[in-house]
TrEMBL record:
<comment type="pathway">
    <text>Pyrimidine metabolism; UMP biosynthesis via salvage pathway; UMP from uracil: step 1/1.</text>
</comment>
<dbReference type="InterPro" id="IPR034332">
    <property type="entry name" value="Upp_B"/>
</dbReference>
<dbReference type="GO" id="GO:0004845">
    <property type="term" value="F:uracil phosphoribosyltransferase activity"/>
</dbReference>
<dbReference type="GO" id="GO:0044206">
    <property type="term" value="P:UMP salvage"/>
</dbReference>
<feature type="binding site">
    <location>
        <position position="79"/>
    </location>
    <ligand>
        <name>5-phospho-alpha-D-ribose 1-diphosphate</name>
    </ligand>
</feature>
<feature type="binding site">
    <location>
        <begin position="131"/>
        <end position="139"/>
    </location>
    <ligand>
        <name>5-phospho-alpha-D-ribose 1-diphosphate</name>
    </ligand>
</feature>
<dbReference type="Pfam" id="PF14681">
    <property type="entry name" value="UPRTase"/>
</dbReference>
<protein>
    <recommendedName>
        <fullName>Uracil phosphoribosyltransferase</fullName>
        <ecNumber>2.4.2.9</ecNumber>
    </recommendedName>
</protein>
<keyword id="KW-0021">Allosteric enzyme</keyword>
<dbReference type="InterPro" id="IPR029057">
    <property type="entry name" value="PRTase-like"/>
</dbReference>
<dbReference type="GO" id="GO:0000287">
    <property type="term" value="F:magnesium ion binding"/>
</dbReference>
<keyword id="KW-0328">Glycosyltransferase</keyword>
<keyword id="KW-0460">Magnesium</keyword>
<feature type="binding site">
    <location>
        <position position="200"/>
    </location>
    <ligand>
        <name>5-phospho-alpha-D-ribose 1-diphosphate</name>
    </ligand>
</feature>
<keyword id="KW-0547">Nucleotide-binding</keyword>
<feature type="binding site">
    <location>
        <position position="194"/>
    </location>
    <ligand>
        <name>uracil</name>
    </ligand>
</feature>
<dbReference type="InterPro" id="IPR050054">
    <property type="entry name" value="UPRTase/APRTase"/>
</dbReference>
């Protein structure tokens, strides 16, 4: 069963409450989403391996620790996922960045791929798949399937807000995937919006509502 982790750090929860507020404009919304993403990146990368290195400080030589060089890729589900990219790459500048574009078929309501651009060495990288909202779970599940078809073996899904329906979909379709979220909300309304949620993250981020 997919493992769900709710990141309840006080700064994450505080900033999440701010972006939930409907009167936040696009500029402030963008800044807060980036800040939350950075804080989540800190939590999601706790497992990264370290190695001992010899360095020269202004005082003496010392044995300290640095990242061992594990290959990472941050993959955004378009378009709202773009809003979280900078928060991750500011902390992990060596990470490659990929993009997956999906739209919902108006008849079947199933996600359809329209764009995919990923690092060539996907099988060698740990993938952090990012999208602000995990609502029905359809897009995230399709993106995970696409990554697995490209050879990805280790994928973490990171979202700002999740609905139980979306979590259940990922747990059913991809029980090996770890899910990280800042909040598990009540559920979905008749229009498949997360309640209480934060509205359409893409429209609010890009100012297109």
């Amino acid at each position: 069963m997919a493992k769900l982790q709710i990141l309840d750090h006080p700064l994450i929860q505080h900033k999440l409450s701010l972006i939930r507020q409907k009167d936040k404009g696009a500029k402030e919304f963008r800044e807060l989403v980036e800040e939350i993403a950075m804080l989540m990146a800190y939590e999601v990368t706790r497992h990264l391996p370290l190695k001992e290195v010899e360095i020269e400080t202004p005082v003496t030589t010392a044995t300290t620790k640095m990242l061992e060089g594990k290959k990472l890729a941050v993959v955004a589900i378009l378009r709202a996922g773009l809003g979280m990219v900078n928060g991750f790459v500011k902390l992990i500048p060596a990470a490659r960045v990929g993009h997956i574009g999906l739209y919902r078929d108006p008849d079947t309501l199933e996600p359809v791929e329209y764009f995919s651009k990923l690092p060539q060495d996907v099988p060698e990288r740990e993938i952090i798949l990012i999208d602000p909202m995990l609502a029905t779970g359809g897009s995230a599940s399709a993106a995970i399937s696409l990554l697995k078809n490209k050879g990805a073996r280790l994928i973490k899904l990171v979202v700002l807000v999740a609905a139980p329906e979306g979590v259940e979909r990922i747990q059913k379709d991809h029980p090996d995937i770890e899910i990280y979220t800042a909040a598990l909300d009540q559920g979905l309304n008749d229009h498949a919006y997360i309640v209480p949620g934060l509205g359409d993250a893409g429209d609010r981020f890009f100012g297109t509502k």
